[in-house]
Design a protein that fits this description.
alpha+beta; 1 helix; single chain; 9 strands; five-stranded antiparallel beta sheet; four-stranded antiparallel beta sheet; globular
C-alpha cells in the first residue's frame, strides 16, 4: 500500500511538472508564470496566471494564445508596491459576456490585506476591480461565484 501511495504521489507530481513545462513553452517570455485558469475560446485560449511585474511585485497576467499555441497578446495587472495574487486554481469563470475572478490583495507598506474582485468584458478588458474586506486580518480568496 505504501508503494502505491508513493507511486501515485510521484505520478501526480510529474504530471503537474510536465503540464507547467508545456505551459511555459507556450507562454514563453522572460517572466515566470504560475498557471491558474484556462478559458477556451472559439479561436484559442486565455490563460490566467500568477506572475511578477517589471517591479518584481506579485501580479496576475492574462495571456491569449491561438489554436496553434502562438501568443496573441498578454496583459500584466499589478502595481509598484501592492501585490495582486491570482487566487485558487480554476478561479476565472465566464458569466455571460463577462469573465470574473478573485484573489488576495496585499499592501505591505500599510500592513493590510484584502480581496480583489475583477470583472473583464468579452474582449478581456478590465471593466471593474473592487477591493473588499481591506484590513489587517490575514485572508485569502480561493474561488469566486
Amino acid at each position: 500500500m505504501k508503494k502505491f501511495i508513493t507511486y501515485t504521489i510521484l505520478l501526480l507530481s510529474v504530471n503537474a511538472g510536465i503540464s507547467q513545462n508545456i505551459f511555459n513553452e507556450i507562454i514563453e517570455d522572460t517572466i515566470g508564470h504560475v498557471m491558474n485558469s484556462v478559458v477556451a475560446l472559439d479561436t484559442g485560449y486565455v490563460f490566467l496566471s500568477g506572475t511578477g511585474n517589471e517591479y518584481d511585485v506579485r501580479s496576475f497576467a492574462l495571456t491569449c494564445v491561438n489554436e496553434f499555441g502562438e501568443k496573441q497578446w498578454k496583459h500584466v495587472y499589478g502595481d509598484t508596491i501592492v501585490e495582486y495574487w491570482e487566487g485558487w486554481n480554476g478561479n476565472m469563470k465566464n458569466y455571460g459576456n463577462t469573465y470574473e475572478f478573485a484573489g488576495e490583495y496585499v499592501n505591505p507598506s500599510e500592513g493590510k490585506r484584502g480581496i480583489h474582485l475583477n470583472i473583464f468584458d468579452e474582449s478581456y478588458n478590465l471593466s471593474s476591480q473592487e477591493i473588499i474586506f481591506y484590513d489587517t486580518i490575514d485572508k485569502r480568496a480561493f474561488y469566486s461565484i
